[in-house]
Design goal:
Layout: H1 7-28, H2 33-37, H3 44-64, H4 68-88, E1 95-98, E2 101-107, E3 110-112, H5 114-130, H6 140-159, H7 163-179, H8 184-202, H9 205-215, H10 226-238, H11 263-296, H12 300-324, H13 342-358, H14 370-385
Antiparallel strand pairs: 1-2, 2-3
């Protein structure tokens, strides 16, 4: 039994956070004339990111202090709370619109994106749900309940609209159901049902434009394909060793969103294939360490929770890598721990805090489902004494 948390997991997280802060400063230190008119200095984004990191450390420490049984108890209330926050983005005066989407809440001193909390809440809820005594992997009823909850959240995501969050939540939910041993025919039936819905959503003009620009960005190099082409140029310009920290040319108003969704392209340009490869390697190690926590767990709740959190972080990183390298259509998802973006950073650092707690392996404090325990005792008594009243 481990007495301490996984130090390698924490060290990798710290390294990614430090590199992220460095790259955010590099991508935002040069102030354009339009930014200077708004009194934005070279340290504007860097200071805000450092402040978010401080809040993230507080969230990580608070999550680290939460015992698994506490997480088990608050799973449903947390899911309901995240649902209410998601609804509040549509309330005038509370929700903030940007780029034609309404995804953020106005919270001092910045904004918050509830969809990030929804993913964390859903993972904790699914871990509780799948570790319950009445969860059966051969039961369609056990399968359809989390699918229905997922669908409700996805409908709200699409109303914002936030197609990326809807897809991410769907993959996380199905991955956890598959991991629990849910019958494959149920999962395949869900895929068959979801396919025409996905096709209809993708056929929306602005989404379809992203698909066509992904297939052939050079068809419209100054329009829909501009961002992806500039990402390719950034990655290609870096070579093996990179052009040097702070020496990027693509960040000079060529590549959009260099400090958020496309920060990995900046890493590839300034730090080269070596720097980009190190980041990918660290995320792989982070995922492997998370799965190691899963394999050591003796309690089913801890087992599913550690797997779900590991998948949540790894999936977001994988999607970001795939987008900036042109492997999937462009979708705005930040790179965990590295991109500028408060909501994602806070939630991912909270997830790290939970995983660090679970890595201690204190399964002597087993999460006990009292209802399950009583049912098992009754079954045992009936097996010995027959169908008497107990």
């Amino acid at each position: 039994m481990n007495k301490t948390y996984d130090r390698w997991f924490l060290l990798i997280t710290f390294f990614l956070l430090g590199l992220g802060a460095l790259m955010i400063y590099s991508s935002t230190a040069i102030v354009s004339p339009a930014m200077s008119k708004k009194d934005v200095t070279q340290f504007f984004y860097f200071k805000r990111h450092l402040f978010t990191m401080l809040l993230g450390f507080a969230a990580m420490f608070a999550a680290y202090r939460l015992r698994p049984e506490t997480l088990n108890k608050i799973a449903l209330p947390l899911l309901i709370f995240s649902f209410l926050l998601l609804i509040l983005v549509f309330v005038p005066g509370m929700g903030i619109s940007a780029g034609g989407a309404k995804r953020w809440l106005r919270l001092w001193p910045s904004t918050f994106q509830p969809s990030e909390l929804v993913k964390l809440s859903m993972v904790i809820f699914l871990a509780k749900y799948m570790s319950a005594y009445n969860y059966r992997t051969d039961s369609f009823a056990s399968f359809i309940k989390p699918i229905a909850i997922m669908a409700v959240f996805q409908v709200i995501f699409l109303r914002q609209p936030d197609f990326g969050a809807a897809i991410s939540l769907g993959i996380i939910t199905l991955a956890m159901l598959f991991f629990s041993g849910m019958k494959l025919r149920y999962l395949l039936s869900m895929a068959v049902f979801a396919l025409p819905v996905a096709v209809k959503l993708i056929r929306e003009p602005y989404r379809w434009k992203r698909v066509t620009s992904f297939l052939n960005p050079w068809e419209d190099p100054q329009g829909s394909g501009f961002q992806l082409i500039q990402s390719f140029i950034a990655l290609g310009s870096g070579g093996i060793k990179g052009v040097g920290l702070g020496e990027s040319k693509q960040k000079l108003l060529f590549l959009p969103e260099t400090h958020t969704d496309f920060i990995f392209s900046l890493v590839g340009e300034e730090l080269g294939l070596i720097g980009a490869g190190v980041i990918i390697f660290l995320f792989v190690v982070l995922f492997v360490r998370g799965i190691t926590i899963t394999n050591r767990a003796k309690d089913s709740f801890v087992y599913y929770l550690s797997f779900g959190l590991s998948i949540m972080i790894a999936l977001q990183a994988l999607i970001n890598f795939s987008v900036v390298t042109g492997m999937i259509p462009t979708k705005g998802l930040p790179l965990p721990f590295i991109s500028y973006g408060g909501s994602s950073l806070l939630v991912n650092m909270a997830a790290v805090g939970i995983l660090l707690n679970l890595s201690k392996g204190e399964d002597s404090r087993r999460v006990v489902d009292r209802t399950k325990e009583l049912v098992m005792r009754k079954k045992a008594l009936r097996a010995v004494y027959g169908n008497k009243q107990f």
